[in-house]
Amino acid sequence: MNIHNDIHPTLKLVRLPHGQDLPLPAYETAGAAGMDLRAAVSDDQPMTLAPGQRALVPTGFVMEIPEGFEAQIRPRSGLAFKNGITCLNTPGTIDSDYRGEVKVLLINLGDEPFEITRGMRIAQTIIAPVTQVRVQEATEASTTDRGAGGFGSTGVA
Ligand SMILES: O=c1ccn([C@H]2C[C@H](O)[C@@H](COP(=O)(O)OP(=O)(O)OP(=O)(O)O)O2)c(=O)[nH]1
Ligand SMILES: [Mg+2]
């Protein structure tokens, strides 16, 4: 039984021509937070990331995110640990009104070239609620115990 009272908003996914034969993102295990994203690079032209190089990797689909939600694009820990591959802009933000192809901005922080092949699970997406606030300008902010202390002001122990 889902702890959120079985509320599952619908995420619409539209496959693009170059993503037709790829599995759509899906939760890999029952309790997975994220759905893995696959590289829609062409079969005969895998993408190779040299150390330090970044690239925008196509996923082959468009998302229609329900209003009030965003999609975050996050790295996969296995690729990060084993190969130094991460998302440069993590967490990437997909706005609910974006109708372009979802792309993953990968960077190779490892010391070996990394080959991205078609269908490889390169990142994951988490659908999360967002709140749009009403902005109000004020002349001063309320006082607190913390005040302006930050960046380690409470120590480490
Ligand atoms: O990892 C990402 C990040 C963004 N996007 C797409 C969806 C998102 O809605 C749009 C804009 O992203 P963002 O707001 O992060 O980029 P920006 O540089 O502020 O561009 P814009 O001026 O278009 O908002 O780009 C992706 O496909 N992948
Ligand atoms: Mg923006």
From TrEMBL:
Q: Where is this region: Disordered?
A: 138-157
Which reactions fall under this protein's catalytic activity?
A: dUTP + H2O = dUMP + diphosphate + H(+)
What EC class is this? hydrolase
Q: Where is the dUTPase-like domain?
A: 22-155
- What keywords does the record list, in alphabetical order? Hydrolase, Magnesium, Metal-binding, Nucleotide metabolism
> Under the GO molecular function aspect, what terms does this record hold?
dUTP diphosphatase activity
Which residues does UniProt call coiled coil?
none
Tell me the residue numbers annotated for binding substrate.
Answer: R76, S77, G78, N89, T93, I94, D95
EC numbers on record: 3.6.1.23
Required cofactor names = Mg(2+)
Q: Where is the composition biased (Gly residues)?
A: 147-157
The pathway is: Pyrimidine metabolism; dUMP biosynthesis; dUMP from dCTP (dUTP route): step 2/2
HAMAP family linked: dUTPase_bact
Functional note? This enzyme is involved in nucleotide metabolism: it produces dUMP, the immediate precursor of thymidine nucleotides and it decreases the intracellular concentration of dUTP so that uracil cannot be incorporated into DNA.
Family, according to the entry, reads as follows: Belongs to the dUTPase family.
The identity of this protein, by name, is Deoxyuridine 5'-triphosphate nucleotidohydrolase
Source organism: Ciceribacter sichuanensis
